[in-house]
Amino acid sequence: MDLTIEVERHKGAWFAPYMKDHICEAEGRATVVFHFHWDDITPEGAAAFCDVFTQQALRWKPRTPEAPRGPRIPIWMELEPDMEPGCAIVVDDRPEYIRYVVRAGLIKQRAADAITRSQSERSPDWVRVPARYVSHLRAV
User: Fold this and answer.
1) Which residues lie across from 41 on neighbouring strands?
2) What are the b/e assignments for 73-111, b being 16+ CB within 10 Å?
3) Distance CA 126, CA 122 (A)
4) Which of 2, 6, 85 is nearest to 53 (CA)?
5) Is the CB of residue 34 less than 8 Å from the CB of residue 104?
6) DSSP code for 108
């Protein structure tokens, strides 16, 4: 199944960030949309998280319906004021936890806490798959 990740910013009354799945099994595609309030994440932060969540989705797959639920893993975000130039987000993604280190200013702590809490609540329904590396040979 093809998976697309989107990060959206919405104006209006404040709300806690949340995730919403849009699954079309007949077409073999799914989209996960991360919804944030306009004030909680910058446009640069939304783009960076869209990339990070997309890359992370390559490592996590839904458990099959017959598989038992897995453990709930802790997921958290730390906002760091001094990161290497050009570096927005570093992810330590392990089977037993996920830790994001994010350049301060891209996301507010309340949004970081809310979205990682939501991810952690969903973690028993996902399984981490081994990393895959692909090398393409070129004639030299």
Assistant:
1) 107
2) bebebebeeebeeeebbebebeeeebebbbbeebbbeeb
3) 7
4) 6
5) no
6) -
Report which residue type is found at 116.
Answer: T
pLDDT at 1: 65
Residues in CB range of 94: below 8 A, 6 or more apart: none
SS (HEC) of 68-104: CCCCCCCEEEEEECCCCCCCCEEEEEECCEEEEEEEC
N-terminal to C-terminal alpha carbon distance within the chain: 36
The Cα–Cα gap between 86 and 105 comes to 14
Q: Give the DSSP letter of residue 124.
A: G
**pLDDT tens-digit map of 35-87:** 999 999 999 999 999 999 998 888 888 888 898 999 999 999 999 999 988 89
